[in-house]
């Protein structure tokens, strides 16, 4: 069964099953546009409600392609829909247009600017190197699930709020709603496998100064890379890292902090990020393939390649101040000298150097 045939039958059978259960719902097919992904979904909305449940059709089609029977797939879809409707957060729809209430739920997220180029045209955002900071009202986030609303230009306009005010409020409220967590990798591993197991393997505990990598995210581990936009995050991370550090975009949910202590170079870190993104990170969770750097003295956050170029320029300037000539500086000077020399003179010099005659 191809995808289109599956979709037609799946939607019809899902509605029939829900009708048989006595569910009073509307079922439709829509394209859901989200940051980092777009997908075709079945939207199930209870009568008299503005809030429904979206389930991605492609995920259920893939389940069937991977060996699940068609009936099992439909049964699972019915279960997911019923669970989603039952667990919908209870909130006042009218409050969604009241910014004075909604701003208390304002959080920030960081996404790839290139991967979300079209979507970013419709949402307020701020650029952060090759990433973009966007804003979201978090209505509910717990073990049962998460409900949130991406702030769009249209929504912001209806609230009568400027992008500048939105950003200022987000900078104040986001760290309160989703506070930053920075932990050593050894601590994270101990939480995942258990302290006893980590101790037996010699992974935990590790002295703070011996930590090779730190993990930065938020308590619910959802869109934790947004901490990059927090006002004091870079300085907090610098304190944990003991100074300058590189940032590896593990995913949109977390970032890794690697102390800039000379143990790992930019090229190695870039290769690591690209390999992990290609093999272990789902496309919907990918941030970027870039590596970033924070200069704790100059208070500069930038792409790793910009940092390397800036350092090379500073070293050359420092050498010139001391009256020294770097190899790079000498080559540059010779190139400028040749470029300024008359063309005939250049030819004459070349001919004499070879012991020949100029034409």
Q: Top keywords for this entry?
A:
alpha+beta; six-stranded antiparallel sheet; four-stranded antiparallel sheet
Q: State the total count of DSSP E strands.
A: 13
Q: Which residue ranges are poorly predicted, with pLDDT under 50 across at least 5 consecutive positions?
A: 344-359
Estimate percent helicity: 40-55%
Helix and strand element order:
HEEEHHHEHEEEHHEHHEHEEHEEHHH
State the helix count: 14
Main sheet specs: 6 strands, antiparallel
Q: Indicate the mean pLDDT.
A: 84
Distance between the termini: 78 Å
Q: Kindly report the spatial arrangement of strands forming the biggest sheet.
A: 8-9-11-10-12-13
Strand content: 15-25%
Structural class: alpha+beta
**What spatial form do the alpha-carbon principal axes imply?**
globular
Rg is: 28 Å
Topology (SSEs and partners):
Elements: H1 3-20, E1 25-34, E2 37-46, E3 53-56, H2 57-65, H3 70-86, H4 99-102, E4 106-112, H5 117-120, E5 126-128, E6 131-142, E7 145-150, H6 153-159, H7 163-177, E8 181-184, H8 185-193, H9 195-200, E9 214-217, H10 233-241, E10 245-251, E11 254-259, H11 266-279, E12 292-295, E13 300-303, H12 304-321, H13 327-340, H14 343-353
Antiparallel strand pairs: 1-2, 2-3, 4-6, 5-6, 6-7, 8-9, 9-11, 10-11, 10-12, 12-13
Helix pairs in contact: 1-3, 2-3
Quick overview:
This protein is α+β, with helices and mostly antiparallel strands and 359 residues long.
Q: What does this protein structure show overall?
A:
24% of the residues are buried. A hairpin with a 2-residue loop joins strand 10 and strand 11. The strands form 3 sheets. This protein has a 6-stranded antiparallel β-sheet, with helices on both faces. The chain starts with a helix and ends in a 6-residue tail after the last helix. Helix 1 packs across helix 3 and helix 2 runs antiparallel to helix 3. The chain has 14 helices and 13 strands. The protein is α+β, with helices and mostly antiparallel strands.
């Amino acid at each position: 069964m191809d995808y289109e045939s599956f979709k037609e039958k799946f939607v019809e059978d899902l509605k029939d099953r829900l009708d048989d259960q006595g569910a009073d719902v509307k079922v439709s097919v829509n394209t859901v546009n989200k940051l980092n992904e777009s997908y075709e979904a079945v939207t199930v909305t209870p009568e008299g409600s503005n809030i429904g449940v979206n389930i991605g059709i492609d995920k259920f089609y893939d389940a069937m392609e991977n060996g699940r029977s068609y009936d099992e797939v439909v049964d699972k879809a019915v279960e997911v829909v019923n669970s989603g409707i039952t667990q919908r957060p209870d909130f006042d729809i009218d409050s969604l247009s009241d910014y004075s209430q909604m701003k208390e739920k304002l959080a920030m997220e960081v996404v790839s600017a290139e991967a979300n180029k079209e979507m970013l045209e419709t949402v307020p955002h701020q650029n952060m190197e090759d990433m973009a900071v966007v804003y979201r009202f978090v209505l509910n986030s717990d073990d049962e699930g998460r409900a949130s609303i991406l702030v769009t230009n249209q929504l912001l306009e209806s609230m009568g709020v400027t992008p500048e005010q939105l950003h200022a409020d987000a900078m104040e409220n986001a760290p309160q709603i989703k506070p930053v967590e920075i932990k050593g990798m050894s601590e994270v591993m101990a939480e995942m496998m258990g302290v006893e197991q980590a101790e037996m393997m010699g992974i935990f505990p590790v002295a703070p100064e011996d930590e090779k990598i730190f993990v930065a995210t938020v308590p619910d581990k959802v869109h934790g890379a947004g901490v990059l936009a927090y006002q004091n995050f870079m300085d907090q991370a610098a304190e944990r890292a003991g100074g300058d550090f590189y940032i590896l975009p593990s995913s949109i949910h977390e970032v890794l902090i690697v102390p800039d202590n000379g143990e790992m170079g930019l090229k190695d870190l870039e290769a690591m990020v690209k390999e992990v993104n290609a093999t272990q990170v789902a496309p919907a969770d990918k941030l970027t393939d870039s590596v970033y750097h924070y200069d704790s003295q100059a208070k500069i956050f930038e792409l790793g390649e910009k940092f390397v170029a800036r350092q090379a320029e500073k070293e050359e300037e420092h050498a010139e101040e001391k009256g020294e000539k770097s190899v790079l500086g000498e080559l540059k000077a010779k190139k400028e000298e040749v470029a300024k020399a008359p063309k005939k003179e250049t030819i004459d010099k070349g001919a004499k150097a070879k012991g020949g005659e100029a034409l």
